[in-house]
Request: fold
Amino acid sequence: MTTGTTTGTETGTTPSDTILAVERLSVDFQIAGEWTPAVKDVSFSVAKGEVVALVGESGSGKSVSSMSVLGLLGPNARRRGSIRFGGTELLGLDEEALRAIRGRRIAMIFQEPMTALNPVYTIGEQIVEAIQCHEPVPAAEARARTLELLKKVGIPEPERRMHSYPHQLSGGQRQRAMIAMAVSGSPEVIIADEPTTALDVTVQAEILELLRRLREDLGSAVVIITHDMGVVADLADRVVVMREGQVVEEAPVTRLFSDPRHEYTRKLLSAVPRQQPGEEPEADAGDAGGSTTLRVADLEVEYPGRLGRKGFKAVHGVSVTIEKGKVLGLVGESGSGKSTIGRAIVGLVRASAGSIEICGQDVTSLKPKELRGLRRKYSMVFQDPGSSLNPRLSIGDSIAAPMIVNRYADRRAVQQRVLDLLDQVELPTGWADRFPHELSGGQRQRVGIARALALDPELLIADEPTSALDVSVQATVLRLFQDLQDRLGFSCLFISHDLGVVELLSHDVAVLQHGRLVESGPARDVLRDPRTDYTRRLIAAAPVPDPVEQAERRRLWREMAG
Amino acid sequence: ACGNPVTLPESMEAVRPNAGGPSRGGALYFGLSTDPANLDPHVSTGSASDYLRQLAYNGLVQYDGSGEIIADLASEFGWSDRLTYKVKLRPGVRFHDGSTLTAEDVVFSFRRMMDKETAATSGPLLDQVDSVEAVDATTVAFRFEQPDVAFPFALAAPTSNVVSRKWIESGANTKTQMMGTGPFRFVERIPGVSTTFVRFDDYFEPELPYLNGIVFQPMGDDYARVTALRTATVDMIDYVPATHVGVITRNPRLRFASDKTFGFGFVGFVTTQRPFDDVRVRKAIALSINRPSVLDTALLGNGRPMDGALMPETFAPYASRLDGSMPYDPEQAKFLLKQAGQEGLTLPVVTTSSYSVIARPAQAMLPGLRAAGMNVNLTQQEWLTFRASVAGKTFPVHSWGTAPKFGDPASLSDFIGSSGAFAENLDFRDDKIDDLLAQGRRTTDPNLRNEIYLEAEKRALELVPMTYTIRREQGEAHYTHVRGYEHPPKGAWTATALRRTWMEKTA
Amino acid sequence: MRRFLVRRFGQAIVQLLLVGSIVFFLARLIPGDPARAALGDAATEEQVALTRAAMHLDEPFLGQFLGFWARLFQGDLGTSMISGRAVMQDLPSRIGNSLELVLLALAVSLVVGIVLGRIAATRADKPADHALVAGSIFGISLPVFVVGTLLLLVFAVLFPILPPRRFTSPWEDPVAHLQILILPVVTLAAASCAVITRMTRAAMLETLNADYVRTARAKGLAEKRVIRRHALRTAMLPVVSMTTVELTTLIGSTVLVETIFGWPGMSSLLMNAVGQRDYPVIQAVVLAAATIVILVNLVGDLAVRVLDPRAEDN
Amino acid sequence: MATAPESVAQALPDTPSRANGGRKPFFKRMLANRRTSVAGAFLLLIVVVAVLAPLIAPHDYRDIVGKPLTSGGTLGIDDFGRDVLSRLIIGLRTSLGVAVSAVLVAGVIGVALGLVAGYVGRWVSTIIMRGIDVLLSFPPIVLAIAVVAILGPALVNVVLVIGVLYIPRFTRIVYSQVLSIRSMEYVEASKIMGTRPADILAKTILPNVSAPIIVQLSLSVSFAIQMEAGLSFLGLGAQPPLPSLGTMVGAGRDFLEVQPTLLIYPSVLIILVVLALNVFGDGMRDLLDPRHRGKNS
Ligand SMILES: Nc1ncnc2c1ncn2[C@@H]1O[C@H](COP(=O)(O)OP(=O)(O)OP(=O)(O)O)[C@@H](O)[C@H]1O
Ligand SMILES: Nc1ncnc2c1ncn2[C@@H]1O[C@H](COP(=O)(O)OP(=O)(O)OP(=O)(O)O)[C@@H](O)[C@H]1O
Ligand SMILES: [Mg+2]
Ligand SMILES: [Mg+2]
Reply:
């Protein structure tokens, strides 16, 4: 092993410890015949057993840098610089030699476990395949090892789950299977690309716990890519901050949080919503004797089973009300029925019992014609900014759609209003004719909000509107949202699993478990002084962006979960 | 054999040379243009099926190589008086089941043909027969109310076969089985695949047949049939399409056996429909058909233009006297149309797409009609649809092709006699022609007959219920190692030549 | 799964009842007379009328219709009006011969199409890909009978490598049988091969970009295995579900192929029957063909369910 | 589609997308793609020739202009003594007319059925999809012969027959696509706005399932040209003397060894048309999809 002495990084890991060293890495993509840079002169290194977090805004090159390590970029990518693994230069290594390293010595955990696992093979088959491609072990032994791995990553009933297809597992379980596959070769380095995005807090906490344990058990180094500063605080030893394809700062985790040097890092940290003591959404004018915008009483929703099969009851007798101008936060673990309630209110699923009154009218009993008039009084912001906009419509047309459908005004006035709305959500008015794919996630989400606001609704249903966005973008969107709510005074049902966000925005909070309301009340009371264990666990599971505080919370959470 | 053809045993295919005479043995593979659907001895579904029928069955008489009627099951035959026709049977003829042929079987056979329920193809030809009886064990007498010159032709027709009374009365399915006195025994028919015959060892002509077996394979597609012959998949095919005559005649290993007398094309008019009830219009159309050009394009010259009599001179001596009666004369046609007040007439014509010998001439006559200022709307229909259209007279004009039933001018009545199968489609009735035809059928003096039929044809050329276009060259093609086969002569539509065919060697 | 099967079988029976009824009336709506077909050219109108009566064609439609179903439920497919043969005597072997042709052609076009599609996809926008796309267009554009004729001319007449032979059953002489199979199968496969190539290419272009293919590479799998097991396998799903449509197209094309090559299959039986208005045979063949198509659709749906574990749940 | 003037687009501040081809007007983008524009130009030429066919053809397609099966005229003389070039031009017109209208019939009905079946679901889709299976289970030639025999062999009826026969292809594709799209959030967003179901189908779902439809359309035209040829082969297509490319190929078959060009010319023309249609179809699919904007320049 030739020791390539690395010119010390800022924090100076001792060279002998270094297992992976990325030096002056540049990656270009060929687009329309031209080479466009994505990553410019990036250097960082990872020592044995160390956890390095790569953070930075969306599109800053985190994934590209990490995938460069194993040469997993498409044929339109060009890499320059150096990537040393142990003593081996990975750049320019031939495919055969690279394959011996992939999976065996450096493993990757990908961001979206649903798409990263092959949907037509059971997870058992996929893990067995990973084991067998490096070692010619007999099938029976490979299966036994797989079972062990599944146990190790904490999948319940591993014998049964082994034979499950990815879609038959919950998001958290899929991610664990992915991890089991990654560690099957006892790799020296694990690269985890946003392993917990889109997972709810409790699952996220479990996965982070798992990664930590793996590092301890296998002594592997971990490179974790994330946009959640809480996760960084929870797990990382060292942090590399990237922006626009370049590294802007690199520091041990405690120092980074206590003393961020680069302006961007500071911005990133300040963008994290966290409860500022004493601060809460002010109860505004509508408070006294305000009319009720939404009254949901004893709502039950049952998803029909296919052809005589028993249906699935997702919501059991939930009652909530939202006064005019108020925001109600709806929280709960994944699958607890949050979205279902939101969808029932806007009429996307039918309530099987109970009543839903919007502005005094019971929408469950209205005929489609009568509903028409009411439609313009409520709207919805969807969770996924990518799929809630029609890819074939320009964003201007998307925003105009509700106005045109509801004959809001003549064409000219609609155009004007589209520009106004774009302005309100802080998008350049010239962008009206852009298409969704030309926008970043945060920008798309703003379009979604603009569309929802087009008809000046009295009630807005926002279903996890920021969960898929990175912190800096999330902060902008939230600020905007708060702003608009203040100015326009609509009532809002805000669905989220991020308690920080909920606390920031909501006047009241309702906590949901298995389709039942377990707790509700003013936000401060519920979140600061939870009355049920369930709520407490929920709160404890959310990591806070402070390594010291997070260590304490983790201890607490472990106790609760254990 | 489960849907797969009975291939004859290899041993049957061996050919034994026979010094100074036809070789013995061998199996002949024959590509047939249509799949003979119905094997009934008395109902023909077309010439292809007649090949089979005449291998398994015999009639009382048959045509010889020059088209003369000679004995088959008969040993003696002829008019015993003006109103009686007697046939004496050959002795010792056996059916394939071993039983002996009797006069009873003959009487039974003809009564079956005359029974309308049978719908026998020869039925209409036997309409003059008053009774048929067995005079003794070996003699049969047909009695008439008036003389019938056409009767021997009815006896020689390929569907006037003698069957075993016992066999039929035992409930045999005559559509799927064959059992006769013929030189070959029927083995099996697999629809669409093959029909197989093997030599009948007890055939009454001791030498015959020479072949051990014959296998017919239906090949409906012209191209496929010709290709099968060219690649020696079969030894022989029928119905050589005009477009492939060249390819075959250029090949020295192949022989094309054909005639240009028998099959012909015609354009028929529904003579009761305006404006075709006007003879000037019909004549104008007849004059606008450029027959030499139709022949050159539609049949690539394989045939003869037909500008006179319907009957060919081979059996109608008067025919040449009528040559040139229907020249190509668009100017005269225009004039006639003008006279009839039908300038710029639009002509709805129906024809069939199923047979190129019918479809191609119909297409080829269009330029001539256009030259005379007529517009043609040609509609091609699938065969039975076409037949329905013609019978239902849904189109005033049809373009068709066929052949006389037998080689005598008496067969004219099918076309211009008021009850003829083809005249029915034309709503054509002319008392004078009917008289002449009846007279001709009664008259025995050849010269007198000649004059009578000449008269009838002349009148038909004047009234133009239909106009004849071209005689097509029609025939079979086979390898030169197939010997003894002759194309049916003189319009004697028969396929008995296969009984005497032999092979010099296998392909 | 069982519930699915029961439901689909129920639907299949309804479909067959429908097909049977439609074809009963459709066949009789075609102008032309089976009696005329049975008697040949020269028969007089009087003879035709008598034969019509003998064939029971004069009886009221409804009675004929009910009789047809009554016989069918007793397992009697009827008897040809023209040849007098029981339909059951011919139908099984003819279906067998057709299916042999169609299934072989399908197999050939699947194998060739998938291989070519895979090559085109892995070399997307390279010369090999362009050549394959153009080649597949060639296959799609040429009518079946032209392909058949050209093959016959080239391989049977001009260079008699594969002369058409007498139809020989596979039991008697397998080698000869295979030889006569080649040209019709190639003819039949030409067009569907092109379609499958295009479909495979499109589907694989998608899966090659899928995240799980990247995962497979990250595991350290050999590239061949990545493509075969991960990219190709999932790309097969749309191909399989379109294969059922392709099969019905193939069954349709056999009419021409069987005519050109004199293949004793179901289609030529049907064409003959249509040409003669042999109603019992038409009904029987169409019902048989419909049964095949409906079963194949069912199997196709099942195959997708087996190949794609996700399908079961939605 | 709202398209901003280029100048405005270029004046825009820093954009997150590098798809700089994205602002060009549709037509310009089409011209920018060489393969698509060559195919498009060829198709345009074909359409012009087809429309103006009688004016362009050097002879009347019915006239005898020379000795049969010789090489007179530009491209030879056919078996009936007619000018091959003139017949090719008219045949092109016939074939394109039949094929394009048949495919349009099939496309419109098939897509509509697929949209409804996929969107409404439940018993409606069972009825539609099983009905489509019934349609598929009729041997196409039987259906064609029956329908054409009943209605007559007029070209309009041939269009109808082919149209009906090709419905299943479209319905099946659209159905499966709609199933995967109907639960997308942007469809739900339309629902919440109160958009009528018909509008959701036509304006939201249809454009998003258009890619496979376009591919299928261009493929189907070739099948329809062939189908018409197949029907003519059985005597049911264009009635003589009116030529279609299919009937010309069929007729040319008989003279393969005498004058092969009678088969080659129409065959080559069919191949060119189909190739152009497919290349153009693929190009259109990419161009119509905003996500592909500016990909290949
Ligand atoms: N295959 C590719 N072809 C062209 N450009 C690419 C490709 N992959 C990534 N890019 C571009 O490279 C840049 C860096 O992308 P990368 O995926 O590394 O971002 P990221 O930091 O992981 O962001 P996110 O947090 O959104 O995942 C982006 O601008 C992206 O558009
Ligand atoms: N269409 C459906 N058919 C049947 N069951 C469904 C359907 N949609 C959701 N469910 C079930 O209903 C329950 C509640 O789902 P819902 O989407 O409301 O959860 P959620 O609280 O929004 O979760 P998440 O945080 O993961 O979005 C879940 O168990 C889910 O599996
Ligand atoms: Mg990323
Ligand atoms: Mg949800």
User: Anything to note?
Assistant: The two ends of chain B are 26 Å apart (CA to CA). Residues 18 and 24 of chain B are 7 Å apart (CA to CA). The interface with chain D takes residues 222-223, 241, 243-244, 246-247, 293, 296-298, 300, 352-354, 359, 362-364, 366-367, 370, 378-382, 385 of chain B (CB under 8 Å).
